[in-house]
Amino acid sequence: MKGIILAGGSGTRLHPLTQVVSKQLLPVYDKPMIYYPLSVLMMAGIREILIISTPQDLPNFIRLLGDGVQLGIRISYAEQPHPDGLAQAFIIGEEFIEDDDVCLILGDNIFYGAGLQSLLIDARNIVENDKKAVIFGYYVDDPQRYGVAEFDQSGKVLNIEEKPHTPKSNYAVVGLYFYPNSVINIAHQVIPSKRGELEITEVNQAYLVEDNLHMQLLGRGFAWLDTGTHESLSEATEFIKTIEKRTSLKVGCIEEIAFSKGYVKSQELIKSIENKKSPYYDYVKKIISRA
């Protein structure tokens, strides 16, 4: 399975912060925002990753992450000249995906929970073994802002509606999607919506009609943070700060994940960070020394 991080868009809701820098490069406590979705893909065991962003922002992502060799992964890059919808990621990434299944995660979404890695592995297994799509739902107080799932009495998904005026539930579809390779063909068939975008909801509906869609609810103990506004960005920073201070463990530390999963050896990791001095890298060095 391959992974795609969609980190495009103009971030207008975060102006003036994003007038000169990509939203996904803004700090969330002690690390760039994109570290969090990247860490999710790595926890799922995905080591080939495509970052899609605007032509003006891509050089900064390349400067930050390079080709990923220091993490034992492979990172590629592609341009999204215009933000024409989430489903466009599969069209842009078609050559990258090739014959593989794919996981798409939005670059401004943060996920946290003690059992997160197990859920990710389970989702990957469902896609690879059963060829079903897997999406995730999270309870929100303002479902009108999101794609919302409707369920029957048994909990089966009946419908997904994008930004409904009258939501059928409070469960929003979050920015993490696992799909079989057939998603490429489905994305090509999506007709632009009234706002001119290739909606990911249409992709999910296509799998739902075929009875090939599984929704995993993120219940009590999990946190989903959408960092698209000044307030939510500040809340995410405070959340990550609190978790890290309370547990003495970092959230979204890509070097720690690469080391713990055996993507890189200790000597290689030490060499890549030996001249870097900050509390973040002190933490990574401490993890290596303990091992």
Automatic annotation (TrEMBL):
<dbReference type="InterPro" id="IPR005835">
    <property type="entry name" value="NTP_transferase_dom"/>
</dbReference>
<keyword id="KW-0808">Transferase</keyword>
<protein>
    <recommendedName>
        <fullName>Glucose-1-phosphate thymidylyltransferase</fullName>
        <ecNumber>2.7.7.24</ecNumber>
    </recommendedName>
</protein>
<dbReference type="InterPro" id="IPR005907">
    <property type="entry name" value="G1P_thy_trans_s"/>
</dbReference>
<dbReference type="GO" id="GO:0008879">
    <property type="term" value="F:glucose-1-phosphate thymidylyltransferase activity"/>
</dbReference>
<dbReference type="GO" id="GO:0046872">
    <property type="term" value="F:metal ion binding"/>
</dbReference>
<feature type="domain" description="Nucleotidyl transferase">
    <location>
        <begin position="2"/>
        <end position="241"/>
    </location>
</feature>
<comment type="similarity">
    <text>Belongs to the glucose-1-phosphate thymidylyltransferase family.</text>
</comment>
<keyword id="KW-0479">Metal-binding</keyword>
<dbReference type="InterPro" id="IPR029044">
    <property type="entry name" value="Nucleotide-diphossugar_trans"/>
</dbReference>
<dbReference type="Pfam" id="PF00483">
    <property type="entry name" value="NTP_transferase"/>
</dbReference>
<keyword id="KW-0548">Nucleotidyltransferase</keyword>
<comment type="function">
    <text>Catalyzes the formation of dTDP-glucose, from dTTP and glucose 1-phosphate, as well as its pyrophosphorolysis.</text>
</comment>
<keyword id="KW-0460">Magnesium</keyword>
